[in-house]
Amino acid sequence: MKRFINNVRTKLEDRNRSNELTVEELEESELQLKPLTKKSSILTLTPILVDGVLRANTRLRYSEDLQDDVKYPILLPKGHAVTKLIIKYPHETEGHVMGVNYTLNHLREKYFVIHGRQEVKRCIKECAECSRCHRGCKAHQQMAPLSRVRLEVTEKPFTNCGTDFAGPFYNMQGRGKARLKRYLCLFVCLQTRCCHLEMAASLETDGFMNAFTRFVARRGWPKLMLSDNGTNYVGAQREIKELVEKINQEKVQRMTSNRIVKWLFNPPGGPHFGGVFEIMIKAAKRAIYAELSGADVKVNSLRQSSSVPRVC
């Protein structure tokens, strides 16, 4: 465009008729980018103006080994046609083999694109050559149908339940006394997703059974209980793993068999089997942490906090 304007303004014998752009023309075209308005939010990034071009004032400005284009890259707005052309140029010249990170690093040698990663992803996604070469049907995991116990809408709430643990939550005992750990025991109805929260007082089986007894006293005896067997807890949930592993599954089944309660345990390598109560554990923990605000509280306050997010 600049060459065309110059040729129109010059005499016929002095016009540039070359098919290739010179280095001077390329550098001059970069300086003719649309200037940024003074009210733009980009000014909060403390940019600098060099020869009328807006450049990013990076943290590399004291380097003596890097070029000025690297220390002060040209700022480019997102979604602009010029920005898209600049992004597409290295991608196409390298044979469409440059990924997002490689293209972004190549651009940052001279340019700083606002929301650069999103712009590079969008340009590569819109590339016709890449779409033609890499087209194909993506595999989509088909979700299994819901089990029958989750579709028994005629049953009362908490007839079929799932249970899981979360924590620990620390409990103050007074000045000079060690803090105690309490664990959240969640019971969720498999049909209605209603939740009941109790605090388990210890890492023993009796601690869980006490929480289960309080749950039964309020909600009645369930027909089916579903839970993890504890072997899927790793890393930061080591203490939860110890809690669930110490729960004697045979003792739980024996204590509930006289009430016709069927107890099922998920496979050791299948935590996704308990997604119905895992997602509710996440919501309950978020609510309790927001209520406690990271503070250690007394047992009454802890019980009160566990009752706040209860949904029934």
TrEMBL record:
InterPro entries: Integrase_cat-core, Integrase_H2C2, RNaseH-like_sf, RNaseH_sf. GO terms for molecular function: nucleic acid binding. Residues 153-312 form the Integrase catalytic domain. One of its GO terms (biological process) is DNA integration. It holds the Pfam family Integrase_H2C2. SUPFAM superfamilies: Ribonuclease H-like. This is Integrase catalytic domain-containing protein.
